[in-house]
Design goal:
Layout lengths: L3 E4 L3 E7 L4 H5 L7 E3 L2 H11 L5 E5 L1 H11 L4 E7 L3 H13 L2 E6 L5 E7 L6 E6 L13 H4 L4 E5 L6 H13 L3 E5 L3 H6 L1 H10 L3 E5 H8 L4 H9 L4 E5 L5 E5 L2 E5 L12 H14 L4 H15 L9 H18 L3
Parallel strand pairs: 1-5, 1-9, 2-7, 3-8, 5-6, 9-10, 10-11, 11-12
Antiparallel strand pairs: 2-4, 7-8, 12-13, 13-14
Helix pairs in contact: 3-11, 9-10, 11-12, 12-13
């Protein structure tokens, strides 16, 4: 099977379900956004989340995707930077347990963490990220050898916080012959780096994953279906996810609507990351792109039924069985 390398911010997710959105106002966090905070503010936020039963899970967008591809049996690797602390060691153990071939560089700061506010009702997520050691990863850390021998390279858009780092990553991945996929990450990240992202997507990226708000930020088009058309002008495969309304996929002249897979949604954290994992797993087996989207939808449906990004064994086994059935019935056409 084809292999995949992920590169991103190595973070531990600290998740809490909100009784209401008042804490978002307290910390001046726009609902649905991702904001960077310093260590002092991060500690204040963490103390506010603890009484809500905060849950700690090794995460980071690309790491979540790579964790799922590895569990699916796809040879998977990851490049990131952690601190010399317990959070960093937990992150490393989690990747080793999942079978990921990791290159975890060590920074001088503490390991990064993403504090995730989960709003009740629609399960929308708002992030306050203390990047720590993850932010210390620089272009010079990336070596050509890290990218050699991998078929896919999946990059999280959050790396755009360091544009020279992201540019070196795509340059090295392209030189190594990888098919490059990019997750747009967050609408405010896209808005703040629009010209740069257009250049990167047009010149390096083969596969783009965006949700509805990210697609709008990238294209300035409100309608997801029309935004899909615009994104597809820059890459081989465009994917626009529209939450509970499913997703749209375009490859060449072929356009597909992918219905959402049934789920009892509790927390949408990691849904886009696991969708990307399923989609890329399907591509690695050269399945039709609509089948790839359905595999992604199956995995996303399982992760939204739990708090966090780590699908439990029971749901995982169900997902694998459903994926096998899907491939058997639709994968050969």
């Amino acid at each position: 099977m084809k292999s995949i390398l992920g590169i991103g911010n190595a973070l531990t997710d600290i998740l809490a379900v909100l009784p209401d959105d008042s804490l978002l106002g307290t910390f001046h966090l726009p609902k649905g956004s991702m904001q960077h905070v310093d260590l002092e503010t991060g500690n204040v936020i963490l103390n506010a989340l603890k009484p809500l039963g905060a849950k700690y899970v090794a995460g980071g967008s690309a790491a979540n995707t790579i964790s799922c591809t590895s569990r699916l049996g796809m040879p998977s690797g990851y490049v990131g930077k952690i601190g010399n602390d317990e959070l960093g060691r937990t992150f490393k153990r989690d990747q080793e347990k999942t079978g990921i071939k990791s290159i975890l560089l060590e920074g001088t700061l503490g390991s990064g963490r993403a504090m995730v506010f989960i709003s009740g009702g629609n399960s929308e997520r708002t992030f306050a990220d203390y990047m720590g050691a993850a932010l210390e990863m620089v272009p010079e850390d990336l070596k050509p050898s890290y990218f050699e021998g991998w078929d896919f390279c999946h990059i999280e858009g959050y790396l755009v916080q360091n544009q020279s780092l992201l540019r070196r990553a795509v340059e090295l991945a392209k030189a190594a012959g990888c098919r490059i996929s990019l997750d747009m990450a967050s609408y405010n990240v896209v808005e703040s780096n629009l010209a740069f992202l257009h250049d990167i997507v047009e010149n390096y990226v083969d596969i783009v994953f965006a949700n509805e708000t990210e697609a709008k930020a990238f294209t300035k088009i409100d309608d997801p279906r029309q935004a899909l058309e615009e994104i597809s002008r820059y890459c081989s495969i465009a994917v626009v996810k529209v939450g509970k309304d499913g997703s749209w996929v375009k490859a060449g002249d072929s356009v597909h609507y992918i219905p959402v897979w049934p789920a009892a949604t509790l927390d949408a954290t990691g849904a886009g990351d696991t969708y990307a994992a399923g989609f890329l797993y399907g591509l690695a087996q050269e399945l039709p792109v609509d089948v790839c989207g359905k595999i992604g939808s199956i995995l996303a449906a399982k992760v939204v039924e739990i708090i966090g990004t780590k699908i439990d064994d029971g749901r995982w086994n169900d997902a694998v069985a459903e994926i096998r059935t899907l491939i058997a019935t639709e994968g050969g056409r």
